[in-house]
Amino acid sequence: xxxxxxxxxxxxxxxxxxxxxxxxxxxxxxxxxxxxxxxxxxxxxxxxxxxxxxxxxxxxxxxxxxxxxxxxxxxxxxxxxxxxxxxxxxxxxxxxxxxxxxxxxxxxxxxxxxxxxxxxxxxxxxxxxxxxxxxxxxxxxxxxxxxxxxxxxxxxxxxxxxxxxxxxxxxxxxxxxxxxxxxxx
Length: 185
Fold this sequence. Notes:
Blueprint: H1 20-25, E1 34-38, E2 44-48, H2 56-70, E3 73-77, E4 82-86, H3 90-93, H4 100-107, E5 112-115, E6 137-145, E7 148-157, H5 166-184
Antiparallel strand pairs: 1-2, 3-4, 3-7, 5-6, 6-7
Helix pairs in contact: 2-5
């Protein structure tokens, strides 16, 4: 475990403050749920809760099936990271953080179909610049539960010959709706 050098006191009703620097680094916003764990050594561990992680095996199956159906890379995310992926470069993307652009689309509950012009190289899926390649087209369907965006289904292509189209956006919306129903169940 890494020490931060930050010390906070607990108040009279056993509340503490999670420092802004840590919240920012972990992408924790006001109102975000946190899971609390206790280790065998008595350490208290806080982890940002992701409802989609509860159904990650189910999400992975849908990811694989959608990839086989449309032939494009398929990514299922929570609010800020990749939880399932099928297709090209699986090991590079799994668990990686989403770019701020994608996070904003998800937070704004926007369905998106983008076809990128030749000179546009967006940071579409993950924020690590060394992994980015030119993404030619992308479809994003947010997963919305109880009026909150909890993740997304993303379909994208590097190939200008095999663009992501309205059909893939509809498929992504369908999988997002299925994930939503699993989370509400």
